Amino acid sequence: MLGGLYFVMVIFREYYGAAPLLISLSFIHSSLRRTTMRKISAALMLSVLALGSSTVHAATSITTEGFGIAIQGNGLADEMALLSSEAGTSRFNLDLRNNELGVPLTLYSISGSNDYTLGYNRYSLQLGSNFTIDLHDGYRIDSIAVSGTIYGSLNPGIPPAAEYPSFSKIGEVTNSFDVRLRMGESPYPTLAAQTYDAIQGDRSVLVASNQAFYDDLMLRLDTEFELTAQAGAYFGYAGPYDDHYISTYDSSVTFGVRDLVLTVQVSPVPEPSTWSMLAAGFGLLAMAARSRRKA
């Protein structure tokens, strides 16, 4: 906004000089001063409160300069903590409920299975959290993102090498993580989504939406992970037509999530009076241009 006004001032001065410029913009100065002082006072108050509290506390609702946010009900997270809030960007650490994702889960193939299922085992879990974001007057949401770290390991059972007519099969393991940002009201449209497969070691997670919102928002964060494990096997044959035996070699797979952070970015929306001032300024520019052409 200030950049636009500065541009108007420079052009106007080139045509009419400094004195008419001061007279023409006096009404803009008085309006801007009232608006700016309100915003500066609010920012100073938030700074004092931040300095007075150096510890980060978990809560179900938090208020920042531009908006308030609250977790609704039990889901993926039941509390959050404000990590930082500056220049319109607020970051919230999500405390994972009951450590259902925070503590790594290990799944094993079913030990001792000697049939052709080879101890196949599967586990999946869906978890979600609902948030309400209440915008303060004069603000809009610019972007919403979820970031963090997922980690896991893939450990297939490995049988010894076999010679014909015997044969062996390496075990199979999978892990996957799906994360979605959705609007929390029917028909629950998806804002952003990512799926991560074959997670071995640490991997960064980032799901972000740059869609702007000018009103309060119901937000839903949905996650789902799935693990599968099937044992490796050795199929032993004495001859092509002889009975065989199966030896299994257990497989395992792990998965976990840590440092899950919700980031919300907001910015001030120019007041209607500001747009009027800018329009008036550009009107003066047009008049100046016409006068100069006539001269």
From TrEMBL:
The keyword Transmembrane applies. This is PEP-CTERM sorting domain-containing protein. It holds the Pfam family PEP-CTERM. Residues 268-293 form the Ice-binding protein C-terminal domain. The chain crosses the membrane at residues 6-28, 40-59. Keywords: Membrane, Transmembrane, Transmembrane helix.
